[in-house]
Amino acid sequence: MVSAAAARQVVGVLGNVISCGLFLSPLPTFYSIYKKGAVEDYSPNPYVVTVVNCALWIYYGAIHPDSIFVITINAAGLFIELLYIIFYFIYASNKQRKSVGIKSLIGIAGIMLVMLPLSFIPMSKSLQGLLIGLACVIVNIGMYAMPCDAIIQVYKTKSLEYMPLTLSVVGLLNGICWLTYALLRFDLFILLSNGIGFVLGLIQVGVFAYYWFKYPQPKNPNLFKSGYNWLKSKMNNKIVDEKVTGGGKVELSDIV
Predict the structure, then answer these.
(1) Based on the domain organization, do 88 and 172 belong to the same domain?
(2) Structural contact between residues 47 and 84, judged by C-beta atoms closer than 8 angstroms
């Protein structure tokens, strides 16, 4: 029979993988920004909040025993999210750059406001752990809730263009995994933040599904169909290239 400690190790590794997927899930959004050359109506809020969240969880892991998985994934997440903010800043308008700059400074101030007192004011380890745990729960819930701000826009426009499904789905899976991790060796703070995160992720996916089926979404083509068409075009181009380089005859069917 697998022990709770061994099971927690496995879930911790799985949680790192899923969390990495959560941090990488905005890549299609940033590819879209790159192609358009502008951030348009995409919000920087999720990335700023996630930077604060990762920084606080690294601190939490540093003062709590057996929290190596918490430290490793949040260190990776901090690095990735900082890259997103830099990328966003490059493609933002002057007004948007000012906004993201102010929000980033507020985020840094928030991190310092929590970490400096806990590091330099004398207090017991239990009180220190309680305070950083509460701060992590509040900010982590905010991170999970950030994609919910798109729900208002979806309601107004009936369009899912600015509500990335990947972020919501991976957030839901991330909440489930870390909720399990917290239950295997009871951790109240991880349990609270990811339990609420699970509920918020469920709401986001439910809203996406409702508007996907109720209203036509021409700007959100079927991913499987578009992937198939992309693969087919690549195969046809390969056939044409092979026939041209080999001196063969290119048929009409090869390029249609």
Answers:
(1) yes
(2) yes
Total domains, the chain: 2
Q: Measuring CA to CA, how many Å separate 201 from each of 141, 159, 180, 205?
A: 11, 19, 16, 6
Q: What is the pLDDT of residues 9-59, one digit of tens each?
A: 888 888 888 888 888 878 888 888 898 898 887 888 888 888 998 999 999
Q: Residue 155 class from Cβ within 10 Å (0-12 exposed, 13-18 middle, 19+ buried)?
A: exposed
Distance CA 137, CA 139 (A): 6
180 shares its domain with 91: yes
Rounded CA separation 147/174 (Å): 14
Nearest-5° angle of CA 34, CA 146, CA 157? Answer: 70
pLDDT for 227 beyond 70: no
- Token pair of 12 as six digits: 């911790």
Answer whether 217's CB lies under 8 Å from 157's CB.
no
Distance between CA atoms of residues 70 and 87, nearest Å? 26
* Calpha distance 82→233 (Å, rounded): 36
CA neighbor of 126 nearest in space, from 74, 75, 188, 193: 188
Residue 196, domain extent: 4-214
Q: For 131-146, what is each residue's pLDDT tens digit?
A: 888 988 888 888 777 7
Distance from C-alpha of 76 to C-alpha of 81, rounded to nearest angstrom = 9
Three-state DSSP string of 181-208: HHHHCCCHHHHHHHHHHHHHHHHHHHHH
